[in-house]
Amino acid sequence: MADIESALLEIVKEHAVGLAGELSRDTPVADLGIDSFAVVEIIYEVEEKLGIEVPFNANENPLEGMKTVGDLIDAVKKLAAPK
After folding, report:
1. Nearest alpha carbon to residue 42 among 21, 26, 66
2. Is the whole model's pTM more than 0.85, yes or no?
């Protein structure tokens, strides 16, 4: 499996329309300019490229409570961890 962190950074960077500067773990999610459509695309790419199933409910914001890109990376890594 690809390195989750670097792969996820690339996926997010492709959809970050509000990003000024480099994307890192410390980048605030609010600075990415990601709308709900982009969130769905990111989830799809994570599942396709990384083989990680991401639970998704269209009525909930999956980024809620995530303040930084690092929070997002940690959440995806947790989903990928063997149970």
Report:
1. 66
2. no
